[in-house]
Amino acid sequence: MASIDKRGPLQFRARITKKGFPSQTKTLSSREAAEKWVRKTLAAMEQGTFICSKEAEQTILEEALERYAREISPEKKGHAQELQRIKIWKNHPLALRSLASLRGSDLAKYRDERLFAGKASNTIRLELAIISHLFTIARKEWGMESLVNPVQLIRMPKPSIERDRRLQGDEADRLRNAASKSKSCEIGPMIDIALETAARRGEIAAMRWEYINLARKTWHIPETKNGTPRTVPLSMKAIEVLQRLTRIIDGNVWRFCREQGITQAFERVCVRAQIENLHFHDLRHEATSRFFEKGLNIMEVSAITGHKDLKMLKRYTHLRAEDLAVKLG
Which of 281, 290, 294, 327 does the annotation list as catalytic? Predict the structure, then answer.
């Protein structure tokens, strides 16, 4: 059964009640549009292709993001960083729109606004990836099968040029000297461990003595970014650094073990050392490149760094031309 009621000068409410289906209601701007919607909906019900869109129409993006943050995001390795991106979305005007109303043009406009604001392409790609995955989850698990993923309808920003920053000249010595004057007595040893192991910031922050075997010269990392545990060989320099540390009761290697805190301390060290455009993650790049310069092959290096994709590992192999010239003779 279908009915259309005039609710105002430009408001016509169409209602459909059919056995075996939830009642459907939609308000449109003309009787003609309301009749067309009724015919289309009834035909879909008869053909068995009808998908209820009520929940998608009644759920705004902000509500969906809050649910995503509770149920989906905590399962990811980059949970903390993703929550920051979700916060950005919740503060955007699109957060007040229903999921069903979001179109590719809305996301394209968001993309262009962020690019115009000077945000990095990779940052925008990660922000859009959250919305894309949210729509996938909503379709598959939240009963909103009617949704069309708007992110799949737009062009993604081109990937940013990968960083290839390495330490130059006496920058390593300047870093260590500046770190020795830091309020945090641990940032210097952390820098050395990063340069000796090519470990990620989060892996270094989570170091525990129970996973370190100084006799065997190994450090086991049970949780990694790609989900595969690995055991890292420790150089004599890395062992010396660890042996000088004072052990603390809780079993952590560092008292200072917040990832963001490491970044902030490293930034202050760089300012003190008058070194520009150097990130903590660049130390992983530097260490990986040094492994290749020492003669390790790509499989040996991947075993240390934990790279599963050897193509990705190639971008870390920025060998200095002057060093290669010495090898050439």
Answer: 281
Q: Which regions of 153-254 does DSSP assign to beta strands (E)?
A: 212-213, 218-221, 230-233
Where does 171-324 sit in CATH, by number? 1.10.443.10
63-91 pLDDT, tens digit each: 989 999 998 888 877 777 889 999 999 99
Catalytic residue, chosen from 85, 111, 200, 201, is 200
Strand pairing category for 2-8 and 24-28? unpaired
The reply to whether 225 belongs to the active site is yes
| Radius of gyration in angstroms for the set of CA atoms belonging to the chain, rounded to a whole number | 27
Q: Which CATH number fits domain 58-153: 3.40.1400.10, 1.10.150.130, 3.30.70.20, 3.30.365.10?
A: 1.10.150.130
pLDDT tens for 189-227 read 999 999 999 999 989 998 999 999 999 999 998 887 777
316 among known catalytic residues: yes
68 is catalytic: no
Q: Among 6-20, 127-141, 259-273, which stretch is predicted with the lowest mean pLDDT?
A: 6-20
Identified catalytic residue from 284, 294, 318, 320:
284
Nearest-angstrom CA–CA distance, 80 and 129: 16
Catalytic-role residue among 7, 76, 225, 308: 225
Domain ranges of the chain: 2-50, 58-153, 171-324
200 is catalytic: yes
- The yes-or-no answer on residue 284 being catalytic is yes
pTM for the full predicted model: 0.64
Closest CA relative to residue 269, chosen from 194, 179, 190: 179
**294 catalytic per annotation:** no
